[in-house]
Specification:
The chain is α/β, with parallel strands linked by helices. It contains 7 helices and 25 strands.
Length: 359
């Protein structure tokens, strides 16, 4: 049996994952005067947006024609500041136990215990590794010209950069670096791209302007250089013709290979490395009281977008409120700003929900 819950970190909603979806859940819960605590294996909040691509531009956040991933995290942290969430960072959620009263105890790999009536898994892609191209001497050039993510775009200023990939990351970074690098080459094995149509059009426009070299259908077949990367061979997959491209950096952006980690052993229903949820109502899993929101979940019609994660977090919090307060019923009408009591007892200006009670 676990230790007395009184000696644990107690909260209303325990959120596993401090990426954008988990952070926004804090805001929605705070509107309902529900306290949140977040666990994340990374040493800082923000998930992939902070750890992998803080300078990557994001184009599909409402109200922001363009926002850098790191700036989005900063804004979310400021938005939830009045609700004073707790954080357990640098620790991985390892085990979960359901108590007799229906609440949960989650223990991290470092032994920190958390007690809550509701658990919301917002783990994004979980633990992940970049998908690497099958090139014989790839490891030789890792950190010597080959990188699998872009954390600081300025290091590519006035350099020759070759990006491989056909998804949103490859397209977005090609667009961004077109104004930074001396030369940007985008290689994709197909003529069609998997990314947003607007991004595809922007890449084509930059190609027409001579700011991006586009090579399709093609793939990188070999890397060359003494001590550091100096050139790559790109093969046209239609003609088998090889072209030598002089580069300073090769960045294959083929996505991430996700793993759920210990969460996959919690008895949750899993489908293709994602947690199945009921999207008809509240994104609850097969275990009542455990929800999954954001990229970590799956359901018919699922789209892995931050925007969708925000929507799922909102509905999850409504359901969590009913679970925590089964005797209370209400309809949220809108939000406003006014003097409210913070969780520390102080008076402050903060958002709050305006609700209509139902008898």
């Amino acid at each position: 049996m676990p230790q007395n819950p009184l000696h644990m970190i107690k909260t209303d909603i325990l959120i596993i994952g401090a990426g954008p979806t988990g952070l926004f859940a804090v805001f929605e819960a705070g509107l309902l005067q529900l306290k949140c605590h977040l666990i994340d294996a990374l040493p800082q909040a923000g998930g992939q947006c902070s750890e992998i691509y803080p300078k990557k531009p994001i184009y599909d956040i409402p109200g922001f024609p363009e926002v850098l991933a790191g700036e989005l995290v900063d804004n979310l942290m400021e938005q939830i500041r009045p609700f004073q969430p707790g954080f357990t960072l640098g620790e991985r959620a390892e085990t979960i136990e359901k108590l007799d009263d229906g609440t949960f105890v989650v223990t991290t790999n470092k032994g920190t215990k958390h007690h809550a009536p509701v658990v919301a898994i917002a783990g994004g892609l979980g633990s992940f590794e970049p998908r690497k191209p099958l090139l014989d001497n790839l490891a030789q050039y890792e950190d010597n010209g080959v990188a699998y993510m872009i954390k600081e775009p300025e290091m590519y200023r006035d350099k020759k950069v070759l990006i491989a990939g056909g998804g949103d990351s490859a397209l977005d970074w090609s667009i961004f670096l077109a104004d930074v690098a001396e030369e940007v080459t985008l290689v994709h094995r197909r003529n069609e791209f998997r990314g947003a149509l607007d991004s595809v059009e922007k890449v084509q426009h930059l190609k027409d302007q001579g700011k991006i070299k586009l090579m399709t259908p093609a793939e990188v077949v070999s890397l060359h250089g003494e001590g550091k990367l100096e050139k790559v061979m790109v093969r046209n997959t239609d003609t088998d013709e090889d072209t030598e491209v002089r580069v300073d950096h090769f960045i294959p952006l083929f996505g991430l290979s996700p793993k759920l980690g210990p969460i996959g052993n919690w008895g949750l229903e899993i489908e293709k490395n994602a947690i199945k949820v009921d999207n008809a109502l509240d994104y609850q899993t097969n275990i009542p009281g455990i929800y999954a929101i954001g990229d970590v979940n799956t359901y018919p019609g699922k789209l892995k977008l931050i925007l969708c994660g925000f929507h799922e977090a909102t509905l999850m919090c409504q359901s969590a409120y009913q679970r925590i307060h089964p005797d209370k019923k209400y309809v949220m009408k809108y939000t406003t700003v006014g003097g409210v009591t913070g969780f520390d007892g102080s008076k402050k200006e903060a958002p709050k929900a305006v609700v209509k009670a139902i008898d």
